[in-house]
Amino acid sequence: MNNPTLFDRVYGCMLGGLIGDAMGAPVENWHYRDIAAKHGVLSTFSGDGTDDSAVKFIIYQSLIENDGYITADELAASFLHNPQFYNLFYIPVRNMYHKIKDHLALPIDAGNGNMQSSSSAMAISPIGIINACHPRQAAIEAFDAASLVHSGMTGFCRDGACAIAAAIAQSMVPQTTVDEVIDAATRYLHQTSSRIMIDQIHTVMDLARRSAGYEHFREQFYEQNLCDVICDSRETIPATLAIFYLSDGDPERCIVNAANFGRDADTIASMVGAIAGAYRGVEGLNQSWVEQIEQGASKQKEMAVNLVGIIEKRKRQLKSIVDHLSSM
């Protein structure tokens, strides 16, 4: 594998997520057989994403405005500052928004009682990005931010967000492997409190490793692992990681396989596109896709530069800590 620069990995993560969201959006809620009947293999897209990308933009903005450090409090304020996206929000995000807006809950408690979804995990990649090469810290920071939308009985959705953030941070480690990325997704979760998500990821990854390839896995997954709600993190997070594994981390294969997976196709493709984009960098993406998405996503490159600046500042802060400890 090549070793892309930090900017390439950041920008690749951002564009990979956007492309996956846009490609999967038209077939959201579809069965994979219906996608095949209509499109053969879907590998084109139009537009630049759905609520997945809108919520992700809010997180990017919050990180940039708060010097790279956000909790549920700062993220809640950013949601209130972006009411133009309200009509795109899914049910649990709308519930959170009104709890905060009407002072019915503190931000850290606003996720309690909200229905299961992938609303946190689908947009958590910015937290993974700014914690490049530090998956444990990515999981820690994602836990706080994702509590804004999910906690309590649906805390497994928050755990799914932590898994994706850690996977993205690990993907940016030079010369890391697909297996190391998959391992990072569960290694830094709460080993008791996150057991629902950890067990589901392990179950689906075992299925992927035993399968005869992507299409066989997809068939078996539909038979054994579907949830009543298609955007349930217990379905989308394990599927995302399995597709990344079965596609060998190749961004084009990851995104196409995820879009043709069906179910919550835009979210799964957005998450796996972000992981694969961080893993291979923007040069690993289909360049015609990159040119197309850049036409409608002009702010992405500027945000990528800002995020790289945040990472560089964190690096200096870590070096300062090491220097202090070394002098003791």
Key words describing this protein structure:
328 residues, mainly alpha, ADP-ribosylglycohydrolase fold, 16 helices, 64% helix
Number of strands: 0
End-to-end span in angstroms?
Answer: 40 Å
- What CATH architecture label applies? Orthogonal Bundle
Q: What's the shape?
A: globular
Briefly note the CATH topology name: ADP-ribosylglycohydrolase fold
Q: How many domains comprise the coordinates?
A: 1
Could you give the order of the helices and strands? Answer: HHHHHHHHHHHHHHHH
Low-confidence stretches: none
What is the gyration radius calculated from CA atoms?
18 Å
Give the number of helices.
16
CATH hierarchy class name: Mainly Alpha
**Fraction of helical residues:** 55-70%
Briefly note the structural class of the backbone. mainly alpha
Q: What kind of sheet is the major sheet? A: none
In percent terms, what proportion of residues is strand?
A: under 5%
Can you give the mean pLDDT? 96
CATH H level: which superfamily? ADP-ribosylation/Crystallin J1
